[in-house]
Amino acid sequence: MSRRGWFSLILLAALLLAALLAPWLASQNPYDLATLDILDARLPPGSAALDHGGTYWLGTDAQGRDMLSAMLYGLRISLAVGVLSTLLALTAGVVLGLLAAWHGRWVDALIMRVVDIQLSFPAILLALVLLALTGPGVSKIVLALLAAQWAYYARTARSAALVECQKDYVAAARLLRLPTWRILLRHVLPNCLPTLLTVAALQLAAAISLEATLSFLGLGLPVTEPSLGLLIANGFQYLLSGRYWISVFPGLLLVVVLTCCNLLADALRQRADPREAGR
Amino acid sequence: MNEPLFHARNISQSYVLANGWRQRRSTLQALDDVSLTLHAGESVGIVGESGSGKSTLARIIVGLLPPTAGERYWQGQRLPDGPHAGIQMVFQDAASALNPRARVTELIAEAPRIHGLITSGESDFVATQLNRVGLDPQLAQRYPHQLSGGQRARVGIARALAVKPQLLVCDEAVAALDVLIQAQILNLLQQLRRELGLTLLFISHDLGVVRHLCERVVVMHHGRIVETTSAGQLAGLPSSLFRS
User: Fold this and answer.
1) Is the dihedral of CA B71, B75, B80, B85 positive or negative?
2) Which DSSP letter does residue B171 get?
3) Model ipTM over 0.95
4) Which residue has the higher pLDDT, B85 or B241?
5) Which residues from B are below 8 Å from A169, CB to CB?
6) What's the gap in Å between the CA of A173 and the closest CA on chain B?
7) Torsion sign across C-alpha atoms B60, B63, B69, B74
8) Does B194 touch chain A (CB under 8 A)?
9) How high is the pLDDT of residue A77?
C-alpha cells in the first residue's frame, strides 16, 4: 500500500482509538450538566477555567462545555453511526448482490430494478424522508443510512460476482457439487472483497458526512447524543460574532475523518486494481 | 454388449444472438443433434477446429450447461440437468480453474470432506492425492500463484480425481502448457487411466495429442460429428475439413 494509504489508515485508527477512549481522555463529561460551569461559557481556545485549574485548549461553547471533550464524544457517536451503518449496508448489499449474480433471470432483474430505483433518489432525500417518518435516534439514523446505502454495495457485489462466476474455478466448484452457499461465501465472496472494501471505505465517508448533514439540519441525532454535525450546528449562530471555535474545530475534525476515509479508499482501489499495481 | 458408462443422445445447443425490440430473432446453432457413447475404461478424443462446438459439448456432458435439446444417460439411467458425482472435468486454463485465495490442500480436500470421502486424516488424504499426480506433498500449503503451470495442471487433475469420478473430461487440458510439460501431463493421464480404470474424454484441437492418448477419435465440424475413427487411422484422416 502507498505511503499515503498507510498514513490515512494509521490516522484513522488513532481517531478511532481516541473515540473509543473518549470517557478517559476527555477532561469532563460534556453531557453531565453537573460538571459544566455556565460562567465558563464561550471562552476562546487556551483559556483557563475559572474555578478549577484546567485549561480549555479548544475553548468552550455556550453552555461552558469544553470543546475538546465535546469533540471526542461527538467523534465517538459519528464514527459509531458511520461504521455500524456501513457494516449493515455492506452485509445487506453483499447478500442481495451475490443472490442476483448467482441466480440471474428474474431474481437478478427484481433486485437490480429496486437498486436502480433506490439509486435514482438522492441519498439525503431518502434519509430525510425516513427520519421525518421515524423521528430522531441513533438506531433510526443507522436504519436510514442503511436504506440509503445498501444499493451501492448490492450493485458492486453483483458486478464483481458476475465476473468471478465466469471463471472456471466456480465451474469446478459446481462440478464438485459444493453447496451453493459455500461456493458463494468461500469461493466467490473472498475474490470480490478487494473491490467491496474499496467501496466500503468510500461509503463510510459518505455515511459519516450524511449523518453530519442530517444532524446539522436537526433531524439526525437527539441533542443528548450530539455528533460532530450537531456540534457544528451549535456554534453556527456564534460564527459571525467572532466566536469561531465552537463550529470550526468540530468541522475540521470532520474534514480530517472524511479525508482519511477517502485516501484509504483510494489506496485500497490502487491495491485491488492490477493496472496500478506497478506504480 | 453391456450398458455403456455414459451416453449423450441427440444433444443440440443454440444461443440466441439478438432478441431485442424490433430485432429479428437470430440464433447460433452451436451443436446440432450430437450423440456420443462412452464405454467404461475407454479413452475417446474429440478433435475439431475452433468454434466447432467441442467445448460446448464438454460443458453439456459434465452438466455445467443445460442443452437446448437432448438427454444424458449414466449407466442406462437418464441424468437430470446439472453436475453428477461420477463426472469431473479438467479445465484448459489451470490458473483460472483454481480459486486464487485457497491453498492447495483446501482445493483438493474441500469437496471430499463435504461428501464424506475422507476416512482417515485430511493431511494424509491430501498427501496421497498429491503423490498420485506426481507432486510433492509439501506443496499442500502453497497458493496457486506460487505454483508453476505444470504444477497447477497437476493440482487441477488431483482435485478432479479426489472425488473418485469414473469419467474424466479434459477440455484442452494441456493446450496452455509447453511441449515438454504437455508430454508429462499426457503420460500422467495415461497412467492414471490405467491405475484407476478411468474413462477419459479428451478434447483438443491438436491431432498429435489425441493420437497419443486416445483409442477412438470423434471429429467435429460446425457443431456436428462428421467422423468417428480409431486413433490409428487418424493419420490418413485429414479430409476436406482440416485443409483450410
Assistant:
1) negative
2) E
3) no
4) B85
5) 96-100
6) 8
7) positive
8) no
9) 85
